[in-house]
Amino acid sequence: MLDVSCSPTPFLIGVLAPCLPQLLELPIEEVLIVDLCADKFVVQLGDEDCILPSKLQAALQQILEEREDILNQVDGDGSEGQQADLSSLVSEGFVRFFVELVGHYGLHMVESSNGSRELQRDSFRKSHPSRGVRQFLQLFMDTQMFAGFIQDKELAKGGARGLFEVRVAEYLDSCPEPEPSGVNKFLKGLGKLLQVK
Hints:
The protein is mainly α. The protein has three domains: about 1-45, no CATH class; about 50-100; about 100-175, no CATH class. It is built from nine helices and four strands, in the order H-E-E-H-H-H-E-E-H-H-H-H-H. Strand 3 and strand 4 form a beta hairpin. The relative contact order is 0.08. It holds the Pfam family DENN.
């Protein structure tokens, strides 16, 4: 079973602590190994702190730290309601993270000549207001995770809306209209000037 960790496919697996020495002997590349009991990295690549945009990383970290506080407050009975709330908090944190990262994808989906939907990749990446997120998106858009996400959205014909789509709609409603820049700003200002006269 430990041989699965040598696979190039991205995944998350759990390994018992007694198996760690055997795991470390395997020819694994680009793998993070985290000791959840000790709350530390056993193996890391070194670029973990600079891949994610700092604001998104801080927000995600805050949610996970709040989870830790809530977990510490849970009484010894570990009631099911509290566990469900804790699970919802963590889930909501990751959903919000992805909403802020790629929630604007729908604004860049166009219908191609054959009737299928297609993401305009450059406009999608360049439209994010954060330079750090744009840089991250350049890397993230080459991953299997992003390719699968976009393929699902391109093939979707509407219908059911999950939690992600609901949060995307809320996020887009809360975003202010982007301020025009360059020529567009000039033309908008000129239009307002002409309306006044």
